[in-house]
Each structure stands twice: as structure tokens, then as C-alpha cells.
Amino acid sequence: MSADSLEGWRGFESVPGDALPIEFSPHALERWAERVHAVDLDAARTQLCRMLSAARVTRERPSWIDAREREAPAWLLLGDVALPLWENAHGELVAATALTPGGFPETHRANVNRGRQTARAGKRASRWAQKHHGGGRPDYLPSRDGDV
């Protein structure tokens, strides 16, 4: 596909998803699996390829995506899922990620937040230990190399 492949349909509002060859980045497959279907990456690629005939490729960003957050030369729209498309160095369209109106499911968001809270607590404990123990590990904790 040439670099001006998108130019050929610029005058159209959209084209069918299977009208253009589209590749999926590993990140896009991971996000599809997380946000749409809980499947492995091979199954995600298979699902997406099978669903291309029901998808649309358009230059218009979905209204629910904040313009400051995302901009892409084209979008693959599949139901409530939007995959921003970029041209790689070879002029091929590549879906970079998969976005949904609600973002992450609440369970995923809770897990991410819990991980961030744990990391912050670890940093606070490290700063406290630095202040109160001169930067070394307290005597009551085993050393990190396994020695007691």
C-alpha cells in the first residue's frame, strides 16, 4: 500500500473495513482482549479480521473521544469500539490500540489503582526508612539478598 493510499478515499465519508488492508499492533490486540473480549491475542486477531466486513474506516474521530486526547489520520469503527489507524513506514495502515466509550472496565480500573496505591505506599515506606534509618534497611527486616 502506498503512502497516498488514504488519499484515494479522502472524498468519501467512510469505506468498509475490509476495503483496505489493516494490520493490528500487539497493543491493539491486547486492548481488544481486555476491553471487548477476554481472549488470547491470536483469537483477538482472528475476531478482528472476521469482523472487518462489518466495520467502517473513516477520517472522522468518534465524538466520544476527546480531541486533546487522541488524533489519528483514520479510524476503524466497529460498533462501540474505535481503533485509531496510523500509516507505518511501509505505508500500511496499523491499528494502534482499541478504545471504548467507557474506557477500562471498572474491575480493571480498580486493579490498576490498587497497584498504583501499593507502589506509592512502598515509596512512602522507603522515604520513611531513609529518614529514620539513614537509608539502610531496618535491622528487623531480612536483607534483600536472602541472608538473615
Topology:
Layout: E1 14-16, E2 22-24, H1 26-35, H2 41-51, E3 56-58, E4 74-78, E5 81-87, E6 93-95, H3 106-133
Parallel strand pairs: 2-6
Antiparallel strand pairs: 1-3, 3-4, 4-5, 5-6
Helix pairs in contact: 1-2
Protein described:
The structure is a single chain. With 148 residues, the protein is α+β, with helices and mostly antiparallel strands. It folds into two domains: 7-95, no CATH class; 105-137. 33% of the residues lie in helices and 16% in strands. Strands 1-3-4-5-6-2 form a six-stranded mixed β-sheet. A hairpin with a 2-residue loop joins strand 4 and strand 5 (81-87). Helix 1 (26-35) crosses helix 2 (41-51). The mean pLDDT is 77.
Topology order in helix (H) and strand (E) letters: EEHHEEEEH
- Category from helices, strands and their pairing: alpha+beta
Provide the number of structural domains.
2
Tally of extended strands? 6
Q: Strand order within the widest sheet?
A: 1-3-4-5-6-2
Largest beta-sheet details: 6 strands, mixed
Low-confidence stretches: none
Assembly state (oligomeric):
single chain
What is the overall shape? elongated
Could you tell me the strand content as a percent range? 15-25%
Number of helices: 3
Rg, nearest Å? 22 Å
State the share of residues found in helices, binned by percent. 25-40%
Q: Give the terminus-to-terminus CA distance.
A: 62 Å
> Average pLDDT, to the nearest integer?
77
